[in-house]
Amino acid sequence: MKSKVLIVDDESMIRSTLKSVLSREPYDVICADSGEEALAILEKEEIDLIITDEMMPGMTGIELLAITRKKYPDTFRMILTGFANLDSAITAINKGEVYRFFTKPCNIDDLIEAIRQALEHRELKRENLRLIEKINEQSKTISELEKKQPGITKVKRDGNGAVIIEDF
Question: What is the pLDDT of residue 96?
Fold first, then answer.
C-alpha cells in the first residue's frame, strides 16, 4: 500500500510542484490550501506524513502540526517554509515535534530523501509496536503454561552452556 503524504501550502504553485514531483515516488499525494482543510482531510484519511508551510492565512503551520501531534501522533510532520528563523524552528520542534524543517526554496532531492527516511522511520515504529505486542502475547502464553506446569519454562544448562534434558 502506498504511503499517504499531505502537502499543505497556501501557494498553489508550491502544492502543484510538490504533488508533481512526489507523484513520481510511491506515494499517494493529497493537497490542502489551509490548516483547516488539512484537519478535515486528517479526520477522513490516515495520513503517514504531513508537510506544511509555516505562514498561511488563518491557522499557521506550527498550529496545524501541534494539533496533528496531539490528535494524530503517528503522522510524521515536516515544515517547508519561506520565513525561517531560529525562533520559528525552535517553536516548530517544541510544539509540533517536526521530523524535518526545510526552507524555501529547498533542494528537492534532500526533501525526497527526508520523506523516504520519515516514512521508513514510521514503518519501523509500527513494526516495533507489532513485535512488542507479539512478545507480550508470548509472555502471557508462557505464564499460563508455567501456572499449569510449574518449572516447565526453566532450562538447566551444563558448564558449556548446553541444555540438560532431565527424565521426568
Answer: 57
- Domain residues of the chain, as ranges? 3-125
Cis peptide before 105 (omega within 30 of 0): yes
Residue type, 112: I
* Phi and psi, residue 114, nearest 5°: -65, -40
Alpha-carbon distances of 49 from 42, 114, 144, 162, 166, rounded to whole Å: 10, 11, 41, 49, 55
> Is the overall model pTM greater than 0.90, yes or no?
no
CATH tag, 3-125: 3.40.50.2300
CA distance 124 to 116: 12
Query: Is the Cα torsion angle 94, 96, 97, 98 positive or negative in sign?
Result: negative
Q: What DSSP letter does each residue of 9-51 carry, written as one string?
A: -S-HHHHHHHHHHHTTTTEEEEEESSHHHHHHHHHHS--SEEE
- Map grid coordinates 525562533 to a residue: 87
pLDDT at 40: 96
**What pLDDT, in 10s, does the model give residues 12-52?**
998 999 999 988 888 999 999 999 999 999 999 999 999 99
Pairing of strands 163-164, 156-157: antiparallel
